[in-house]
Design brief:
Elements lengths: L7 H26 L1 H9 L2 H30 L9 H9 L3 H33 L9 H35 L19 H8 L3 H7 L1
Helix pairs in contact: 1-3, 1-5, 3-5, 5-6
Length: 211
């Protein structure tokens, strides 16, 4: 059986999602309150680096985990997940470690992609808030606004596509009679190389008996 324990990439994924959210919140505060000047006053001290670095990593991970679970629960009320209990039973009955690992990968990647929705929306709002602070390069903020919204909309679609791939592979592996998929079957007019190889491999004695 494949392991369902969180991998290093899952932990780093939540850290990344949380870091993007903190960056988005920072951009919003800086664009509305001028928070950068206040932050730089404390960032120059060595005490700030010691007291903030490790807690900030923990906060980033917690933010990433909570937002991923919350956003996934909210969006799946409108777009149901393809990773249903019936599909999990089908994957389990297939006795395929590769398919089970694909299930866990799809579950992990879907969770992270749903977390990215909140992260990129915060970045989009933060980019828009920074427009007034970036003159005469305010258009960069609008580019960030549009790009953040587009990526946030694409993330649930990508998650659904990943989930759908698990269902397709599960149906192919558990197909009754073990019939290969249509894409794997040779066309009717294709040469039968297996038959030719089997005929060429027969011993000379067998061909003389046939005569």
């Amino acid at each position: 059986m494949a392991s369902s324990k969180p991998a290093i990439e899952e932990v780093s994924g939540f850290l990344g999602v949380g870091s993007l959210q903190i960056l988005g919140v920072f951009l919003i505060l800086d664009g509305t309150l001028g928070f950068l000047a206040f932050l730089e006053t404390y960032a120059k001290t060595s005490t700030w680096a010691i007291l903030v670095t490790v807690p900030l990593l923990v906060v980033s991970y917690v933010f990433g985990l909570i937002s991923s679970l919350g956003t996934q629960a909210l969006l799946e009320r409108f777009i149901p997940s393809q990773l249903t209990p019936a599909l999990f039973r089908l994957v389990s009955e297939s006795k395929s470690d590769a398919l089970m690992q694909k299930w866990f990968d799809a579950e992990r990647h879907s969770l992270l992609l749903h977390g990215c929705v909140a992260a990129y929306l915060l970045l989009a709002v933060g980019s828009w808030a920074e427009v007034s602070m970036m003159a005469p390069f305010g258009f960069v903020g609008y580019v960030g606004l549009v790009g953040g919204v587009v990526i946030a909309l694409l993330c649930p679609l990508l998650a659904r596509r990943i989930q759908r791939q698990v269902a397709v592979f599960a149906e192919a592996l558990t197909e009754p009679g073990g019939t290969p998929m249509a894409s794997e079957m040779p066309p009717n007019n294709a040469p039968n190389f297996d038959g030719q190889q089997a005929g060429s491999a027969r011993s000379p004695g067998a061909s003389q008996c046939e005569r």
